[in-house]
Specification:
Elements: H1 3-32, H2 48-56, H3 60-71, E1 74-79, E2 83-88, H4 91-99, E3 103-105, H5 108-117, H6 126-136, H7 142-169, E4 174-178, H8 179-196, H9 202-207, H10 213-230, H11 246-272, H12 286-295, H13 303-334, H14 336-352, H15 366-378, E5 384-389, E6 393-395, E7 398-400, E8 405-409, H16 410-414, H17 453-470, E9 471-475, E10 483-485, E11 489-491, E12 496-501
Parallel strand pairs: 2-8
Antiparallel strand pairs: 1-2, 3-5, 4-12, 5-8, 6-7, 9-12, 10-11
Helix pairs in contact: 2-3, 7-8, 7-17, 8-13, 10-11, 12-13, 13-15, 13-17, 14-15
The protein binds protoporphyrin IX containing FE.
Keywords: Heme, Iron, Metal-binding, Monooxygenase, Oxidoreductase
Pfam family, one: p450
Organism: Polyrhizophydium stewartii
């Protein structure tokens, strides 16, 4: 019998045997395992029954918080849809996982996002990742950070002016805004201008009461991915979240269309410039670098890779900072005494610097630095980072088999009482002293660390300086504040605040 027929004839039996072995193993697993502790793992579904109520609320972060509190710095968890992972909240081990070549980027999460972010730097692995990172890194060098500083000033003032006019036009001399909506618009405009020299005009759209289609589409992407976490793979088609579902294809098409427009606009400008990029050397922005690499024939980014990077940067550049800024405002509204102390510092240092804030003197706002870091400690918007073990490793006295996934649970690491006094309290003053090495990693660590972290640090500080200099923020009572795990962590229904002008 030809080989192909033999395979076809035995395939059903082989599949049935494999399924039976998987089920049998899952029954035996709890009895055989002498690995790290963790919640009871039911056959096939693992800890899914215990996690279901959290998943239903998209609050899986609370489930993992609880697991890590109960079982300590290493815990074994298996959730049917997400497989087995060893969850870590030990600083030294976290550092090793993120920085040592024994651990490589896991493809698990990428399986949930690949149709949207396949060619984005944060999804790439191996040699392609290395080529992309090397090409794009210079677009985050000192010259660009200075440019990012100027852009931060522009977008912060644009938002502050818009709110100021809205307050002047109001009868009560105060307004209620959903800060998240405005921060999404601001950070979208920021990444457009700072990395792509492109104008989205998202702040102006929102002021006019119009939706920005690009932002709406990215929001929808996060909702599709959020649902993929909750729904078993084989049900994605029924839930309209499968990569081949018409709604998902439509959404992808719209995003690709927007990205194409940005790329086409630049290609047109290049054509008008005799085929050359508009800037050269260290001045080239991210898009220049992506396009020059494809047109000069030395190192080649395919059209898909260019589109993938643009898509990824629009997302990574706005979703992360807008959530963190919203969480910072949430904390400041909840702690008026901290907001007042911060406003006092901003007034004092701003006047000392005569309003001339630069990349270099920005850290003279010391209390602000503590507020931003403390926000990122308590509410890291990337809750966890997962890596795969290339060979068996010893970790905290346990032997972890090759191929396993190890997840640094950043939230639990950032609240581990071994490293933080009063870990659940918001104390900006704690940042007068450096943290224990490895215990604070909101931007990751090692070779995959956040390429945009310096830009984000500048942007977030500028926004808070300009807003707190001009406004006081107070609680808006008629809202239910809920935290949610999407692709990033944030506030489910945004965060409304009352905005009032400050007297100087
Ligand atoms: C508060 C703001 C931000 C936070 C908390 C944050 C967090 C992170 C984290 C934790 C990683 C590591 C991922 C991993 O190890 O797999 C990462 C990677 C990345 N971030 Fe950010 N990020 C922020 C802002 C930004 C901005 C503004 C940009 C773009 C300008 C950006 C672009 C990226 C990219 C492209 C990667 C992938 C890097 C690589 O794999 O080489 N991020 N970010």
């Amino acid at each position: 019998m030809p080989l192909i027929d033999t395979i076809q004839a035995h395939a059903p039996t082989a599949l049935a045997a494999a399924a039976a072995a998987t089920v049998a193993y899952s029954f035996l697993e709890p009895l055989l395992d002498n690995g790290p502790p963790g919640p009871y793992l039911w056959p096939v579904v693992g800890a899914l029954p215990q996690a279901t109520s959290y998943l239903r609320r998209s609050a899986i972060h609370e489930f993992f918080d609880m697991v890590m509190k109960q079982y300590g710095p290493i815990a074994k968890v298996r959730l049917a849809n997400l497989g087995t992972a060893y969850m870590i909240s030990d600083a030294e081990l976290a550092r090793r996982i993120l920085t040592s070549p024994e651990f490589v980027r896991s493809k698990l999460i990428l399986g949930l996002t690949h149709d949207f972010f396949d060619n984005a730097l944060f999804s790439l692995t191996g040699e392609r990742w290395r080529v992309h990172r090397k090409m794009l890194q210079p677009a985050f060098g000192p010259l660009h950070l200075r440019h990012a500083t100027a852009v931060s000033e522009v977008v912060s003032k644009e938002l502050a002016d818009a709110w100021s006019e809205m307050i002047d036009a109001s009868t009560d001399k105060e307004i209620v805004v959903d800060s998240f909506e405005f921060f999404k618009a601001l950070t979208f405009d920021f990444i457009g201008k700072a990395a792509f020299t492109h104008e989205f005009g998202a702040i102006q759209s929102i002021v006019r009461g119009e939706a920005n289609q690009g932002l709406k589409d990215y929001d929808e992407v996060t909702f599709v991915i959020q649902r993929r976490f909750r729904v078993q793979r084989f049900l994605w088609g029924f839930a309209n979240i499968d990569p081949s579902s018409p709604a998902v294809l439509d959404l992808r098409g719209r995003i690709q269309g927007e990205v194409k427009n940005v790329v086409l606009e630049r290609r047109k400008q290049m054509a008008e410039n005799g085929g050359k990029p508009l800037r050269s050397g260290a001045e080239m922005d991210l898009l220049d670098r992506l396009l020059i690499s494809s047109s000069d024939g030395t190192d080649v980014f395919s059209e898909d890779e260019i589109a993938g990077e643009v898509t990824g940067f629009f997302f990574a550049g706005h979703d992360t900072t807008s959530n963190t800024l919203t969480l910072a405002l949430y904390v400041l509204v909840k702690h008026p005494e901290i907001q007042e102390k911060l406003a006092q510092e901003i007034d004092r240092v701003y006047e000392e610097l005569k309003g001339n804030i630069t990349t270099e003197n920005m850290y003279q706002f010391r209390y602000l630095d503590g507020v931003v870091k403390e926000t990122q400690r308590l509410y890291p918007i990337v809750s966890a980072l997962t890596r795969q073990v290339t060979a068996p490793v010893e970790a905290l006295g346990y032997r972890i088999p090759a191929g396993s996934r190890m997840t640094v649970h950043i939230r639990s690491l950032h609240r581990n009482p071994a490293y933080w006094d009063r870990p659940d309290d918001f104390i900006p003053e704690r940042w007068e002293k450096p943290p224990v090495p490895g215990s604070f990693v909101p931007f990751g660590d090692g070779q995959h660390n956040c390429i945009g972290q310096k830009m984000a640090q500048i942007e977030m500080r500028f926004v808070l300086i300009h807003l707190l200099r001009r406004f006081r923020f107070e609680e808006y009572a008629n809202q239910k504040v809920e935290f949610i795990s999407r692709l990033t962590f944030g506030l489910k229904n945004g965060f409304k605040v009352r905005v009032l002008k400050r007297e100087h």
